[in-house]
Every structure is written in C-alpha cells, then in structure tokens.
Amino acid sequence: MSEYQRIQEDFDRSARLAHGVIARKLDQNESVLAALDALLMTRQKFDMPVLKAFSHQILSHYPQLYTVEFFQNVTRDNRQAFLDEMQQRFGATFFIRDFDIVGRRSWVPAPVRDQHLVVTMIEPDIPAASSVYGFDVLHEPRFTADMLKAMQSGHKLASAPFDLYEGGRVYLLMQPVFLGPNGAAGVAGRGQLVGVVALVVYCEKLLNISPAEGVPAELDLSILSADSSRAIFNAHGKHAEAGRWLPALSRLELSLPLVSESQPFVLRVGKDVLLSDFKLGGLLLREGLILSLVISLWLIYSQRQAMKRAQSQADEAIFLQSERAAVTLNAVHDGVITLDPQQKIEMANPMALTLLGMSREEVIGQPFLNVFRLIGELSAELAEDPVSECYRAAHTVELPERMQLATAKGHVRLVEGAIAPLFSRNGSLTGVVCALRDMGPVRQRAAEALEASELRVKEHLEKLSHVARLHTMGEMASGIAHEVNQPLTAISNYCQASLQLLEFGEDSRPQVESALRLAVAQADRAGEIIKRLRALVSKRAMEIRLIDLNQVVGNCMFLAEYDLKERGIEMVQLLSVYPMAVMADSIQMEQVVLNLLSNAMDALRDEPVMKRHIIIHTRREGKKAILEVRDTGRGISPESLEVLFHPFFSTKQNGMGLGLSICQTIVEQYGGLICAENIPASGACFRIELPLSQTVTAPVQEPSAS
Fold it and tell me: What are phi and psi of 21, to 5 degrees?
C-alpha cells in the first residue's frame, strides 16, 4: 500500500507537470496568432508577402505548429479579379474547388457563391499540400460552423479536429482579419472582412513532450473537448507497449482543464500501474528462491515424463516416416528401383514395374542385369553401364540424353534420370537407387506445345507484317501520289484536247473518240493504283457500333492512371451529363484519345509540378459530339500547327510522325474532324468533332466549360 501511494503521488506530480507543458504550448499558439494579428494591424493594407515572410520566420520556434494558412474572402463582386490574380500566380488552370467526398473523392470546380473563403497561402509551402490551393473552406461541412462563428465574433477560435489531406491529425486556430475605414486592420463590426488567418496545430507534436521537461514517457496523454464529450487526439506512452504482454494491476487517470480562451480543452493523463512499478526487490528475491526450488523439482519430474513421451513419439515417427516413404514411392510418376550391395533388386515401386512390364515376384531378388539394361541410343563406342559405374565410383551418375531402358521381355523405352549410391552411417556403400522417368509422354506433350507455339508465332508474324505494311505505306505515299498524279494529268490533257478538236467540226470525231478512250484507260490505271494501296493496308473489318465517348474517356483514364501519377500530373475531367453516342470502333477511338493524352503528358515534362494539368472535356454542340484534350504546356509553334497532321512530321527527337496522322485518318473515316489550336496563356488544345447518333435524343447544345 505504501508503494502504491508513492506511485499515485509520482503520477499526480508528473500529470501536473505535463499539464503545465501543454498549457504553455497552447499559450504559445495564441501568442503567435496575436503576433500575426498585430503585424497586420500595422499595415495600411493587407500584405501577403509580409505575412508569408513573418510566418516562415516564426514557425521554426514552435514545432507543434504545422503551417500558417490564409483563407481569402471572395465574393461575387471580386470573384473575377481574384481568379485573374491567382491565375497569374498559379497558372491558367487555377479554379476555386470543392472536395467531392461522397462522389468521386476528388477535387471538383466549386459553383459561384455569395461568399468563399479560399486557401491562398500555405507556409511552409508543402509540395504534398499543393492541391489544397483554391479550396473553399467556408463550404466544407467540417469547417462551416466554426468559420461562421469566428467571423461573427471576430475573436480567435479553434476548429474541430480533422485529418490532413497529406496525412496527420490537426485542428485550426483561426483569427478573422478585417480592414477598417482608414485602411488599417480592424475588429469585427468596424471594417470589411479580408479573410481568416489560421494556425494548423499538429496534435501529435502538441502532446510530444521532450525528456528534458521531466515528464515520464509512460504517461498516456489525451486532449478532449471542453465538455469531455469527444477525444481530439490520444498519445500512448511506453506502458501501452508493455501492456500487451504484462497485465496492469490498476489504472490511474486525472483530468485537468486547459485554461485557454480560444482552445478550451481538457487534458486527460492516464497510466497503467504494472508490477514493475513496485520496488519490492527483497520480497521478490525470497519468493523467487522458493519458486525456483519448486520449479526445479517439477522440471525433474517433467523431464522423466518427457523422455518417455519422446521415445514413444520417436517410434511413431519412424513408423510414419517409413509409411510416408512407401506411400510416396507408390504415388510418384518416376520408376524407383533399389539394389543391394550384390546388385540385386531389393525394391521396385509400381511405376518401375510398369516400365519393366513385369510383376513384383519376377523382379525382387533378381540381379538387375537379368531384368533390365540401360543402353545409350546411337552409341558409337562401348560405354560402361551407368549402374556399374555408380557401384564403382560411389557417386551419382546422371543418365545422358536419349538413354534407352531394355527389359528382359524385349521392351525398349526412352528414359531419363540418375543412379545414386546409398551409404551406411560409417560411409560404406550399401546399394544404389535408380530413378527412371518414361520420356514417351513428355515427348508427345512437347510436340503438341511446339505445334501450338509455332501457330502463335505465325499469327504474331502476320500482325507484324500488317504493321510493316502500314509503315511501308507511309514511305510509299509520295511515290504513289506521283504515280496517281500522272494518269490524272493525262486525263485532263486528253479532255482538253477533245474539247479543242470538237471546235473544228465533224472531221475531228475519230480523234475525239481516240482521246476519250485514252482518258478512260488512264482512269482505269489510277483506280488500279488505289486498289493496290487498299489491299496493302487492309487487315480486318472494323467493328463499328454505337459507343459512348464518355465511356471511351473512362477506359483511357484507367489505362493512363499509372503514368499520370508517376509524372505528377493532375487530371481534370469535365464530362457531359448526357450520353455522347456516336457510331465508331471503340478500340480505334481509345487509340486516338490515348495518343492525345500521351502527347499532352510529353508537353508537360519540363513544367513545374504546380502547372502540370490536363483537362479532358466532352459536350454536345447541335448534332455534333465534341471531345477536347487540353494541357498547360507551352503550346505549339505556329510553324508546327500548319503541318501538325502531316505524315512523318514530329517535334519529338525519336518520333516517327505517324501518331496524329493516324488519329486524323481514324476520325475522318467516321465523318468527323480533328484540329489543334493554342489556348492563350495556357497551352495546346486538340478538338475532335464526330456526328451524334440519331438514335439518342438530348438538348441541342450544352454550356461550355469555363
């Protein structure tokens, strides 16, 4: 009881010491926020760079502060000016965003509202939190009530705890910032709201107490709300680890209020009382000696019983091992034959008897040479029998390839395997084991597999041949164009000559007929050239059916997800709410979209991480389905725009220049159009237009994306 009372007193002293340390950290939080408020009051107008520099300097002194953030007040009146300012800072793709937790669990554009509180400053600028810029915290359900309460009161206020987007549990300590009538910062009710400055307090570091503070590490610390109804954060001490295997005798707990105007929390300190906390060395030593004597007597008795059980288990294990060996030998698909030192057969499993074509009675006890021989196929010289070689050399002999097993009944089989010696404990040879496998079925399966492999190789070569024909077509394009141009020129000349001859009268009829026949012949020649070109590139009939362009985009996003994450590219999908039904081949349209996505990812390779965005947008315009792929790169040069879709033109060092040309061919064969343009101060935009299917009805036109 005396030891337990001492433990209680030490716990009470340590709990109050921990309470003092954490209360001091809360005071530091309020002091830092007061310093930021005082800094803003000394300025004629709100100065973001000064706030950012001061925050960077002061954060290094307070490890419990994760970041300093500023939420700028944006209304309907100043929304466009705010967006223009932010797009100059972050790029043309900046937008006010919400986080869609219920739906896609991703960032979505926020609708126009009467008031936003938008994240415009994070100090330090953590790369993992870069996507939070533009977040409307006022309309996030977790913050709305606390934000409104802080703006109405004008005083510092702590928010409910939440998990960071990049990991960790924190809460916000907020202070509204107002501009008074004279331009200086004022209080609520006397000025215009500029925004809210907030300290992001890291709960884990708030409860992390340095050993130099004198607080024992085994204390469990918890921060609760003012009414103790919910826990904000729990930090377990070292006893939590020990308690997994060492039972606790009792539990000590103490709740102490943290007197803070804006952070009205309650600190709960707990500790499990373990046997190791009691200083009872002498008593434990005496009891230990008595216990060890009892344990020694029990161990002697247990050892005798264990020896009896071990002997019984060893006998059982020998029997089981022998039984398992027998069952294994009977179950394996290899023939196993055991010979004694006199080279007589001691044992043969069922597969070995099948290979020999003999019964067990005909085999057991016979010299192996009277039962079987191992002969090399097509052997050109006299070779030693492998079994005799194993007896002589006392080492394992691997059977060479194409070894034949000749039985006493005249059967011959192709086998593989090995002959291994058996040794006694003192190392003397006690026999050999022959392991033989029938290679006949294996040969049959190998032949079937080879035939199937040759068929796959043939199909693959046909595909490669088709791809080669496509590449050859590109190289032959200029020559074919020249060859087709010749008959077209001749047809034009013959027709012009016929018109001139008709002006001379009826005497020119034979010459006109001759010229027209020649023109017909040249037309047939041009048709034959086109026919040969179509035969060169044709492979299969396209599977044209009704498809949804939104589904095509979804399939492509699944295929490109890994590359987008690896390159740090943010993907924004603005898809039509109506089906984008067109008649096309789904595989070919996926090839077009993936080609455009690949080009967009290549265009963002040298851009900063904050400016790597790709926007894919689908909508309807009249009877057309529109699909746009935009990037935030540096755009396309005016010289390249003119020849962008020409075959063999490429801006890449090792590009073949066929990707966009093939995309154009695919889109145009479905009656569509593909084009490219530069978006001012943003990047490149590729636009695909396809005719909508007449079987699906929808509004004539959808509103375009802002």
Answer: -65, -45
Q: Assign 3-class secondary structure to 401-421.
A: CCEEEEECCCCEEEEEEEEEE
Question: Which residue is associated with the tokens 């680890």?
Answer: 241
pLDDT confidence of residue 639 = 86
Q: pLDDT class for 462, splitting at 50, 70, 90?
A: low
Pairing verdict, β 570-574 and 613-621: parallel
Q: Which DSSP string do the residues of 601-619 spell out, in sequence order? A: HHHTTTS-GGG-EEEEEEE
With a pLDDT cut of 90, the percent of the chain lying above it is 21
Q: What is the mean pLDDT of residues 552-581?
A: 86
| Domains assigned to the chain | 3-207 (3.30.450.350), 331-441 (3.30.450.20), 542-695 (3.30.565.10)
Average pLDDT estimate for 543-564: 86
466 vs 456: CA distance, rounded Å = 15
Kindly report the number of other CB atoms within 10 A of residue 263's CB atom: 23
CA atoms within 13 A on the CB side of 486: 8
Return all residues near 274 (Cβ < 8 A) that are at least 6 apart: 239, 242, 243, 246, 247, 248, 249
**630, 685 contact by CB (below 8 A):** yes
Mean of the per-residue pLDDT values for the chain?
82
Mean pLDDT of 652-668: 80
For residue 618, give Cα distances in angstroms to 421, 580, 625, 626. 76, 8, 7, 6
The more confidently predicted of residues 6 and 501 is 6
More confidently predicted of 535 and 227? 227
Phi, psi of 221 (to 5 degrees): -110, 135
Q: pLDDT tens digit string along 72-93?
A: 999 999 999 999 988 888 888 8
Count of Cβ atoms closer than 10 Å to residue 6 Cβ? 13
3-class DSSP state of 691: strand
Sheet with 683-691, edge to edge strand ranges: 570-574, 613-621, 624-631, 683-691, 673-679
**DSSP H helices in 503-615:** 509-537, 549-566, 586-603
Q: What sections of 60-202 are H helices per DSSP? A: 79-90, 144-153
